[in-house]
Design brief:
It is built from 3 helices and no strands. It has 85 residues and is mainly alpha-helical.
Amino acid sequence: MTASNLVPVPIPDRVAVMIGSCMPAHVLHAEIEAECAAREVYRFRGPLCAEDRADREQALSALARANKVLAAYDPRLTVRPSRAH
């Protein structure tokens, strides 16, 4: 099975609040952390110095921790790093 390439569509704030109210707080926190960490991963472009590699690894670690919480709640919620255009 392959995933389709859907275009992200913004949702109204009230809908986001309603969705969020149905999820445990720790899952919402993990979702925010995962999104931030995924953006941070591609902030660094090669060739990387030692400090940049360490920062990138730290972002990957934060993404993995957040994804662990998200996958325990619902595996479809996991976040992958994506390149910003």
